[in-house]
Design a protein that fits this description.
Elements (H helix, E strand, L loop, with lengths): L2 H19 L28 E10 L9 E13 L4 E10 L2 E12 L4 E4 L2 E2 L11 E6 L2 E10 L2 E10 L5 E9 L7 E10 L2
Antiparallel strand pairs: 1-2, 1-11, 2-3, 3-4, 4-5, 4-6, 5-7, 7-8, 8-9, 9-10, 10-11
């Protein structure tokens, strides 16, 4: 046996011997599933899977007392993922400033029974993600909250999904600059199913 083959064989034996005695851990390891997962809300966003036309009214300037709204249309295609534990929206808005694209991933946590919703802004796709809004549906209305910042100041963010039918739904976004005591709705969106 050549010296090189001998050295490689010996190295592999040493690595295997060390690996046998060490616990195997990797970043993709996941915790063991809990005994009684809360799946009560896992199907809450099933209604949204498919293609939609949207009509939006959006406040141009937020938390400054503005009443200057703009309106625009758009499309959303929503897909279910991970056996229903997640879904994602591929969104395109035809705003007065031009086409605005984004992606809204959602994930359900069976430990807490809460959904988390993120937004990936197509204008800055490698930018930091906003904190996810988290919440659940109660009696057909989904309410989701997050803490965030606007112009360097802390704010609360709220999403509300309501008026859900097989062919339509209503979504609103609101901000609070006073810790949630008062809310300013700044984006209203009505969606109609295409398919």
């Amino acid at each position: 046996m050549s010296l090189l083959r001998y050295a490689v064989s010996a190295s592999l034996v040493v690595v295997a011997t060390i690996a046998i005695g060490l616990p195997v851990r990797a970043s993709q390891d996941v915790p063991k599933p809990q005994q009684n997962p809360n799946l009560s809300g896992v199907h809450d966003f099933d209604f949204f899977v498919g293609s939609w036309r949207t009509h939006s009214r959006r406040l141009k300037y937020r938390l400054v007392g503005s009443h200057d709204w703009e309106e625009f249309d758009g499309t959303i295609r929503s897909f279910s993922l991970m056996g229903g534990l997640a879904n994602v929206d591929d969104t395109e808005f035809d705003t007065p400033e031009g086409i605005y694209r984004g992606v809204a991933p959602r994930a359900y946590d069976p430990k807490t029974g809460l959904w988390a919703i993120w937004w990936i802004d197509g204008r800055n796709p490698h930018g930091a993600l906003d904190p996810p809004v988290k919440g659940r549906f109660v009696h057909g209305v989904g309410t989701f909250y997050a803490s965030d910042t606007l112009r360097g100041k802390p704010i609360k963010v709220r999403f509300i999904w309501s008026q859900i039918t097989p062919t339509s739904a209503h979504w609103e976004q609101a901000y609070s600059g006073d810790g949630g005591r008062t809310w300013e709705t700044n984006w209203i969106q009505d969606v109609r199913r295409v398919q």
